Amino acid sequence: MAAVLLLLFLLCTTWVALALSLPWGHHLDLRVLAGVFVLTVAFPLAVIMQSIRSSTGNRLRDVFDIFCACVVAISPLALFVTNAALEFFRYPVAVAVTPATSEVGINPLFALISDSHITDRTATLENFRGGTPKLRATLSAIRSAAAQHILLLGDLTDRGEDAEWNIVDTVFAEHFRSSSTAPTVWMVPGNHDLQGSPQEGVLEALGTSDAHNHDISFLKRVKLFFYRATKLQGGLLQSNRAPVVASDVARIIGKMLDGLKDGRKVTVNTYRTEIQGIGQQRMQTVVTTSYTAELERIFAQSNSALGDAFPMTHLDTTNGIALVLLNSSIKPSPGTSMGLGNLGVEQLDRLDKLVDVFVADRTLKKVLVAVHHAPVRRESDAWSFTDLLLRLENSDVYAHTFLALDVLDAERLVAVLERLASKRADTQVVIAYGHRHGCYFGRTAGGVWIVEAPSVVEEKETAFWAMYPEGNPGLSWHSSSECRSR
Predict the structure, then answer these.
(1) How far apart are CA 322 and CA 432, in angstroms?
(2) pLDDT, tens digit, 9 for 90 and up, residues 87-131
(3) Distance of CA 69 to the CA centre of its chain
């Protein structure tokens, strides 16, 4: 029994250590669950069973030993499933609403699309066919509808590389440069735009690659995103502070990167090691890499500049509409992935103050909030142990628990906007997002409209959402096919 108790202690300690190291941001934490399990279940149960065992016969002792071993074996899985279930059910839910059809004879104010994953390669990172035919067809449809604005909800590019942005520039120029009524283009960054390959983030998190090489690449992509965004859409102004144009963020980060001479220090260590336990020794050389405080400082300042740029706002006083752009593709810390969306406390605090401004503005009819990662789960999303365990990489549970917006950020985002909806019943509040490569239209319990933009790269038919100046909320689906959750 002593061996079982020791094993229980070691496994629980290891589990807590692993939970503490997981790069999950603010998600409902295995750390907390592991600690609760160890303190309130595992050790008390082991102590009780030890006392019972000492007063029973050998057969019952064997039963207790087996029971303890089973507890040890299933505890990690139980913690994982419990954590996933708590996260899933805590996400705000949007009840499905049947979308309207296109309003004939009325030009849309906004056209909403997402996830075009433009690449100069034959296939995208997620194995969709490369090329631009789908984006060209979508932009042609938007041009025909004569939308005043195009809202791109992230992952416009596949890897955030310069060659991909060149293709984007070319395609948009072909469709709108010669037009006297060219739409204004607005965009929010997606995880692919800023991080590139999601595998990079996975390698960083696992510690199997030089994380700071990826951090520098991340900052270069951030600089490139803001530079290209400024070219496409003109100036974007921050809310609630001195105006800062998007290109200024690119300039700030670029200046920091240009000032970085050498943030790495390579150390070569040589030591003797025994060969396969036979008494012979050989020289073993190990190269280790450390980082100067300068690189850490540059990353912190650059990430701060990126975070401080949002929310970005555009006020259309003619139609009484406010557009709010959020960035959910912020790295919580160096060496972490952005497949999991993160807004951060500071950005949400600024949004909260912005909502106070909107509440007082009696001219507003609509507030459209754009973010890349999904802040809600669909009404049709269902919890299933089979779905979680057998189809982990391609399931609604997985999409929400691990690849959606951080659950605590999602809760607060929806709550802040529901506060606006409750105080301004005459104003329609809409959250638009991409990332899930699907299509959904719904409404939260607190009256916030939810629209999931279609993925250009994955849609079989040309499709986009249109927002009109009038109507509640004035959103309609433009496509020959139905908007169906996928």
Answers:
(1) 13
(2) 778 889 999 998 877 665 678 999 999 999 999 999 888 888 888
(3) 38
Give the lowest-confidence range in 20-34, 407-421, 433-447, 455-469.
20-34
Rounded Cα–Cα distance for residues 389 and 412 (Å): 29
Looking at the predicted structure, is the pLDDT value of residue 284 above 60?
A: no
Pick the CATH number of 92-208+217-244+301-479 from 3.30.230.10, 3.40.50.40, 3.60.21.10, 3.60.110.10: 3.60.21.10
Tell whether the torsion through CA atoms of 48, 51, 57 and 62 is positive or negative: positive
Examine residue 473 and say whether the peptide bond preceding it is cis (omega within 30 degrees of 0): yes
Residue 270, pLDDT > 60, answer no
Q: Which of 270, 313, 269 is nearest to 290 (CA)?
A: 269
Cβ neighbours for 285, distance < 8 A, ≥ 6 positions apart = 268, 269, 270
Both tokens assigned to 14: 């290891």
Distance of CA 43 to the CA centre of its chain: 37
The secondary structure of 310-360 as a DSSP string is -SEEEEETTTTEEEEE---B--SSTT--SSSBB--HHHHHHHHHHHHHHHH
Largest CA distance in the chain: 91
Structural tokens at position 158 = 């596949």
Length of the chain: 486
Give domain limits for the chain. Answer: 2-89, 92-208+217-244+301-479
Give the pair of three-digit tokens for residue 353: 């103050």
What pLDDT digit, counting tens, does each position of 5-28 carry? 565 565 565 555 544 444 343 444
CA-closest candidate to residue 26, choices 426, 413, 293: 413
